[in-house]
Design a protein that fits this description.
Layout lengths: L1 H11 L6 E4 L5 E4 L7 E4 L5 H6 L1 H10 L3 E4 L2 H9 L13 H8 L5 H12 L3 H5 L20 H15 L7 E5 L5 H10 L2 E6 L2 H14 L5 E5 L9 E7 L10 H11 E13 L9 H6 L9 H10 L3 E7 L1 H17 L1 H8 L1 H19 L4 E8 L16 H4 L2
Parallel strand pairs: 1-3, 5-6, 5-8, 6-7, 8-9
Antiparallel strand pairs: 1-2, 3-4, 9-11, 10-11
Helix pairs in contact: 3-16, 4-16, 8-9, 11-13, 14-16, 15-16
Length: about 400
């Protein structure tokens, strides 16, 4: 009885859209005004102590076990919670301190390797089911609304390389090179000598195979090592979806290493998930099941580390809506192979990834998190760059 009273009070102010909730005793409550398109069913009671400390983890695990079922869009439900000012998702006072102390520890090299491999070494086959043919697992860039996901991912790579104003014959390092699309494109289309570094054996082997098939062994080099062990300098550095993995305590070192690996007046394009507000920077569900060791810094944190590293900002571009759209495409693709995923990996795993993709789309849609591209120079800002931003989108405008 007490648990139902607590949940009733919690859910009464949790969403900014009407939501129907059926409890374990079979009774149904309707919260908000109007007709609800979302029906949440609690098949079992929740652990109230865990709800008080780590609500997203308790709710996510209950959903994974089918203790909670959702009829309707998970994305819309989570967005409605983020958009409600006094929702338990936006009032983090009860668990922010615990999160920061528990989930933001520093990463030594072995821990970083384990964290990366736990996520990316699930197997290439899993990601191939719902990513596009470029195997790009980061925010796409919709230069045109009617682009396919693959076209938008390729456009993102060109957007990055065009922003760098990269010149033929120069050397480029991609920190966290994934399945190799950026370094291969940079070599083929921009005549750059490229180097990729990753801790994922699955990504490393996949990229090596692609490079051999394309006959690019002399121009594209892939390293299976920690980026902190690199001993060369480069004209350009790219890093896409990487700084979220290094941990709060290692962000300063990450940007210092970017500066160390750049030649004087060299440029870097750093693309990653950040936020335009103050908050915990971690989510216990994502930390435990998706990205162990992850931490999302806000813009102020990143800019502080950039300045402390002696780098200067050339350009800053938020791409929040682009990542929302990317995630919506991934979700649609994932739903097409959902039953297949259940057979191969089990229902809890399948439900976990469905929840993760839709909740992230909601988080971007609500502005809870953002993704940004930081164009930075090891030298005076704008050195050797055109005087205005038109060069960055010239490719888009010519189509």
């Amino acid at each position: 009885m007490l648990q139902k009273k607590v949940l009733n009070k919690l859910l009464a102010s949790a969403f900014n859209v009407p939501v129907k909730v059926t409890y374990w005793d079979g009774k149904t409550e309707e919260y908000g005004q109007g007709q609800s398109d979302i029906h949440v069913t609690f098949n079992k009671k929740l652990d109230l102590k865990r709800m008080a400390k780590v609500p997203t983890l308790e709710l996510a695990e209950a959903y994974m076990r089918r203790d909670i079922e959702i009829d309707g869009s998970i994305q819309e439900l989570v967005k409605a919670a983020y958009n409600q000012s006094d929702s338990f998702l936006t009032d983090q006072s009860g668990f922010t301190g615990a999160l920061l102390s528990k989930f933001t520890s520093s990463h030594d090299k072995e821990t970083s390797k384990e964290d990366i491999q736990s996520h990316y070494d699930i197997g290439n086959d899993f990601y191939q089911k719902w990513l596009d043919d470029t195997m790009t697992y980061s925010c796409a860039y919709w230069a045109r609304d009617d682009m396919t996901l693959e076209e938008a991912q390729i456009a993102k790579v060109h957007h990055i390389l065009d922003k760098l104003n990269s010149q033929p014959g120069k050397k480029l390092l991609d920190i966290g090179s994934g399945w190799g699309t950026l370094i291969i494109t940079a070599a083929q289309d921009y005549d750059l000598e490229t180097y990729g570094v990753t801790l994922s054996e699955e990504q490393y082997n996949y990229t090596i195979q692609r490079v051999k098939e394309l006959g690019l062994e002399d121009k594209v080099h892939v390293m299976l090592k920690d980026y902190r062990d690199i001993e060369q300098q480069f004209d350009y550095i790219t890093s896409v979806g990487m700084f979220e993995h290094v941990g709060k305590d290692n962000l300063a070192e990450y940007f210092a290493d970017v500066a160390k690996y750049l030649v004087p007046n060299g440029r870097a394009l750093i693309h990653g998930i950040t936020g335009q507000h103050y908050g915990a920077g971690v989510d216990p569900f994502i930390e435990k099941y998706i990205f162990p060791g992850g931490y999302i810094p806000n813009v102020v944190e990143n800019m502080t580390h950039i300045m402390d590293a002696g780098l200067q900002l050339d350009d800053l571009e938020p791409l929040r809506r682009h990542y929302q759209k990317t995630l919506e495409h991934w979700t649609a693709n994932y739903h097409k192979v959902y039953d297949e995923t259940v057979k191969e990996y089990g229902e809890q795993f399948a439900r976990m990834w469905d929840l993760y993709l839709q909740a992230c789309a909601a988080s971007f849609e609500a502005g809870n998190i953002d993704v940004m591209q930081f164009l930075i120079t090891k030298g005076p800002a704008g050195h050797d760059l055109p005087m205005n931003r038109a060069y960055m989108t010239a490719r888009d405008n010519n189509k």
